[in-house]
Design brief:
Layout: E1 2-7, H1 14-23, E2 28-30, H2 31-39, H3 46-52, E3 57-58, E4 61-62, H4 64-71, H5 75-102, E5 107-111, E6 126-131, H6 134-142, H7 149-158, H8 162-168, E7 171-174, H9 179-201
Parallel strand pairs: 1-5, 1-6, 2-5, 6-7
Antiparallel strand pairs: 3-4
Length: 202
């Protein structure tokens, strides 16, 4: 089974690009969705996160905005949070990979925002980075509810620069020209992975 890591900085269009892989029938692990599930009522992260950051739980679930305010500009707090959440998310990712392998999937995608930063690329055979010009990225991010310039800057400070990600990637998918162009890139990658699977099985 070939594993493609999909990553990209905030506002680059990574989640939409992950959807394009799903449209092609490729199983996709969504790291953001996995964390949402961990933070939801009954989620495995609720109790330990509340213990580490008292007051961030509302109605049995983690209030993500309250948690973000507590950790965003505090490196020690962020490390504590990552120490709780990353192992739990890692378990969810391993379950996805094991299930996909058991079901005979020839090719899967791991959609992980901090793929390089958190070391998740070690599980991947290839990495695709989703990119867009900085001005497009900024416009997209600042149009989101609850987002401002300071928050955007803080988030960027935790992410590997886009240029470095592109330099390290096996594939670069630009969303600057619209998502039909990105879809063409995705279809080309899926076709290439299909050929690689056939070669490996021949």
């Amino acid at each position: 089974m070939i594993i493609l890591g999909l990553t990209g900085s905030i506002g680059m269009g990574k989640s939409a690009t992950a959807g394009l892989f799903r449209d092609e029938g490729v199983p996709v692990y969504d790291a953001d969705a996995a964390v949402h599930a961990l933070y939801a009522k009954g989620g495995a992260a609720v109790e330990p996160v509340e213990a580490a950051f008292p007051g961030v739980t509302v109605d049995g679930a983690i209030d993500r905005m309250a948690l973000r305010e507590r950790v965003l500009d505090d490196a020690d707090a962020m490390r504590r949070l990552e120490g709780i959440v990353h192992p739990l998310a890692g378990d969810a990712q391993k379950h996805f990979r094991d299930q996909a392998r058991d079901e005979g999937a020839p090719f899967v995608v791991l959609d992980i925002p901090l793929l390089y930063e958190a070391g998740g690329y070690a599980y991947c055979d290839y990495v695709a980075v989703v990119t867009a010009p900085a001005e497009v990225q900024r416009e997209r991010v600042l149009s989101r509810p609850g987002m401002d310039e300071d928050t955007f800057t803080s988030i960027l400070g935790r992410q590997m620069p886009d240029a470095e990600k592109r330099a390290r990637a096996d594939f670069v998918i630009s969303t600057a020209h619209g998502f039909e162009y990105a879809a063409d890139c995705v279809r080309a990658i899926v076709a290439l992975m299909g050929r690689k699977v056939e070669e490996a099985n021949s």
